[in-house]
């Protein structure tokens, strides 16, 4: 069987088991998702930070480019507790950014999910926990949850998800950890994927540090049925990453909570160093984002290998590289 033809790829209607990771905050544009889908992979719309009307508009934009039959995913954050503003004034004094008079409320998960259901989204992915089982049962789509440990993967399978993203330590963006402290979830992709594959019966998607066909081949050899790449797409012209973000990708990355209030892997900047050195706990997620003089440059450990290619060309290159990796003689 060709590496292209995994059971999960067939279930999702993909020509190759490559998934573009949902990167919230404007990075994952509908245009990027459509380009990946057109090349045979699964494009993802990052809906977590969007109100329902903007999720609906993003879906419409994707379908206008890719067609109504093209497979895609919409990603949301599992419901989170309302953030406390207790440490806002102290944090604003550190960053030099005046807090707003009122922090806008986060979009309501139930309202966001209503759009996913009403629009007939074929794949629904989520992170930061597990939505209520009754909510998952409403979706009628293939569901994908994120795990950073074996225990989280087992919990997701028990909740009835259709597939699990095994998010390694190398991955850029927010950690999806929800059962333990983040410090206990820092397992590399190479170690995490086979453990999760052995622990669950649903398909596993490898994520973290995969930038080219060598990484794709390695993940599939470990038992994953698909791979999810985010940082690899940051330099694509269809990405919503700023020029500063693109330029930063040659820098060192670190896992920190000072940028958003939740642990995420991002490029280490002087601001990160200064806030960490202060030794002050940031306000609850996502309030620090509104109190920062610069946006978070979220990126994985493989960021230096990100290529400035159109997304479709990148997917095509990944296919050729993976073919070559599997064909190579030891």
From TrEMBL:
Catalytic activity: 3 propionate 3-nitronate + 3 O2 + H2O = 3 3-oxopropanoate + 2 nitrate + nitrite + H2O2 + 3 H(+)
UniProtKB keywords: Detoxification, Flavoprotein, FMN, Monooxygenase, Oxidoreductase
A Pfam family assignment: NMO
Keyword check for Oxidoreductase: yes
GO molecular function, one term: oxidoreductase activity
Domain of life: Bacteria
Required cofactor(s): FMN
Family: Belongs to the nitronate monooxygenase family. NMO class I subfamily.
Protein name: Propionate 3-nitronate monooxygenase
Source organism of the structure: Phytohabitans kaempferiae
